[in-house]
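Design review, sub-item: ligand-bound model
Attendees: FS, YL, KQ
YL presented the inputs for the flavin-adenine dinucleotide complex:
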Amino acid sequence: MGVNPKKADESVAKSVSRTAIVQSVCEITPNMRRIVFGGPELADFPAGKEGGYIKLIFPDLPRANPKRPVMRTYSIRAHDKAAGQIVVDFALHNDTGGIAIEWALQAKPGDEMLISGPGTIKMVPPDADWYLIAADMTGLPAALCNLERVPDGAKGHVVFEIASEADQLDLALPQGMDLQWVVNPHPDRSKTQLFDAIKAAEWHGGVPFVWSACEFDTMRSLRSYYRTERAVPKQNLYLSSYWCAGRTEDQHKIDKNKDAKADAPSLKSLISKLLHRAGL
Ligand SMILES: Cc1cc2nc3c(=O)[nH]c(=O)nc-3n(C[C@H](O)[C@H](O)[C@H](O)COP(=O)(O)OP(=O)(O)OC[C@H]3O[C@@H](n4cnc5c(N)ncnc54)[C@H](O)[C@@H]3O)c2cc1C
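KQ shared the predicted structure:
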C-alpha cells in the first residue's frame, strides 16, 4: 500500500542528485509556502512526475545514519519542462520545528538546495467508478496533482484538512465531486478531524479509487476503515503517512518500516487464505 519507504529510498538513492536554485518564494495561503526551483541542472528533470516526490538533501547536518545524509521528502506540485522549473509547496509547521521548514522559511531567490528524485507514487487511474481523495496539508500538493487527473465526468468526494479557513483554495472540480475543507489548527495534537470527515462522507456503490496522504496515526485509522469496513481492494488504494506527530522524518521512517512489517500478513495466514479460497 502506498510507497514502501525502503524501496522508495533505494530508487531515489539511485537517481541523480541535482543542485536546484530557488527562483521565487511566496505564500499561496497563510500556511502554505511555495518555492519554485530552477537552474541549469533541472533542465533534464524527467517530465510527467507531478505528484511524485523529491528528497531535499542537507549534506552538512549531523547524520543519524552515517550512510545517508539528512533528507526530507516533498511532492512535485508542478513542473514546467520548458522553463526547467519545479514547484514545491511547504506546509508551514514552524511551531513544531524541523530542518526543512526552517530552510523554507528563510529561502530566497538564488539559494541552492541539493535534491534527488523524482520518486513516483501511485496515482488515481482515469476509470474508477468513483473517487475519494483526502489529505492534510502535507498531502495537499500531491492530492491536487491527482485531482487534476480525474476525468470531467467523475463523481466522488474530496476532503482536505487545513490549518485555517484562509488556507482554502479556489478549486475547479468535476460537477459530480464534492469538496469539504476541515479546519484543524493543531494537526500535531489533534488527529481525528480528517478521519471523522472521511467516515461521514457517503460511500457510493461500485469500486472507488481511494487516495489519501496524512499523519501516521490518522493513516492507521484510515487503513482499518478502508480495508475492514469498506473492503477497498489493495490495487484501488493509495494510503500513505507523510509525517508523524512528535517525530522527525528520520524517526517516522523507522516507525513506518516497523508498522509495515507488523501489518504484513504472515506466511501462515496467507496459506490459510489460499486454502480457504480453494475450498480446502
Ligand atoms: C511522499 C511524501 C511527500 C510529501 N510531500 C510534502 C509536501 O509536498 N509538502 C509538505 O509540506 N510536506 C510533505 N511531506 C511531509 C514532510 O516530508 C514532513 O512534514 C517532514 O517531516 C518535514 O520535515 P521538517 O524537517 O520540516 O520536520 P522534521 O524535522 O521531520 O520534524 C520536526 C517536528 O516537526 C513535526 N512536523 C513535521 N511535519 C509537520 C506538519 N506538517 N505539521 C505539524 N508538525 C509537523 C514533526 O512531527 C516533528 O515533531 C511529504 C512526505 C512524504 C513521505
